[in-house]
Amino acid sequence: MYSLKRLFITVKTQLDGMVDDFENHEAVAGVAIKDLEDWRSQTRIHQHRLQKMMAEFESQLAALANEAATWSARAVKVRETDEQKALECVKRMVRAQQQSKLIAAQLQATQQQHAKLETDLAAIQNQLHTLSTQKVVFAARQNRIQLQSGLNNGRDNPVEQARKIFNRWEEAITGAELTSPEPVNTDPFADSFTQQEDTLELRMLLDELTAKAGPAKHNADKTDPEQEN
Q1: Mind giving me the DSSP string for 99-138?
Q2: Which residues contact 78 (CB under 8 A, 6 or more apart)?
Q3: Is residue 198 part of a domain?
Q4: 83-152 and 158-179 are packed helices; what angle lies between their axes, rounded to 10 degrees?
Q5: Is the residue at 40 inside a domain?
Q6: CA 84 to each of CA 75, 76, 77, 89: distance values in angstroms, whole numbers, following the listed order
Q7: Given this model, what pLDDT does residue 197 score?
Q8: What is the CA radius of gyration of the chain?
């Protein structure tokens, strides 16, 4: 059991090393950038929610301010005629002012959180720009290294492979041309003219040979003493 476990650990270590060696860094970097983009999207969504909350808090503060002013005016108005009503108006005015303080504190906290998100969003955006640029640059450098390695390696050299492909293509075409039969002329009318022209050319050559042989034979007959005797 211990031997099997040790063998498993050894094999796993070797596989992990192979994975690290063949890791597609460009793809992994793309996943990291995608995660950062998702984080940016979530930050923007949360920032939008905070903006809505701030708008609601500001609306509530305006309503409470109007309410406090209204109860204050009513308290002054009824004080001479009904002090109890005036005191109740003051009580409601104070309650509106207290609620206003609580909401103002919530608004301030929300504004601070919104400002922090704005800073975080700018940092994320800058980081995305930096990483995206680095991804393009690193991918270009890695591709150049792979191309150079392929060119230096004769077996995996893409230029050499392409040259071999075209050489095999040319050899196939040349072999097909050499083994293909000559085209047969199937035009009897043209053949008849060709045959007549060939015959005429042969006849003219024969006449030329005959003309050259005639004088030579005549001279030979005149100078041959055995023929004269």
Answers
A1: HHHHHHHHHHHHHHHHHHHHHHHHHHHHHHHHHHHHHHHH
A2: 85, 86, 89
A3: no
A4: 50
A5: yes
A6: 9, 12, 12, 9
A7: 84
A8: 53
Per the listing, tokens 């034979």 go with: 217
29-74 pLDDT, tens digit each: 888 889 889 999 999 999 999 999 999 999 999 999 999 999 999 9
For 115-174, what is each residue's pLDDT tens digit? 999 999 999 999 999 988 888 888 888 877 777 776 666 555 666 777 888 888 888 888
Show the tokens assigned to 195: 């045959």
Scored b (16 or more CB within 10 A) or e, 141-168 reads eeeeeeeeebeeeeeebeeeeeeeeeee
pTM of the model: 0.51
Residue 164 lies in a domain: no
**Structure confidence by residue, pLDDT tens digits, 84-109:** 999 999 999 999 999 999 999 999 99
145 domain-assigned: yes
Residues 6+ away with beta carbon under 8 Å from 124: 36, 39, 40, 43
Domain holding 48, by residue range, is 24-156
- pLDDT at residue 52 in the model: 95
Asked if 26 contacts 135 with a C-beta cutoff of 8 angstroms, the reply is yes
At a CB cut-off of 8 Å and minimum separation 6, what does 67 contact?
Answer: 92, 93, 96
What total of structural domains would you count in the chain?
Answer: 1
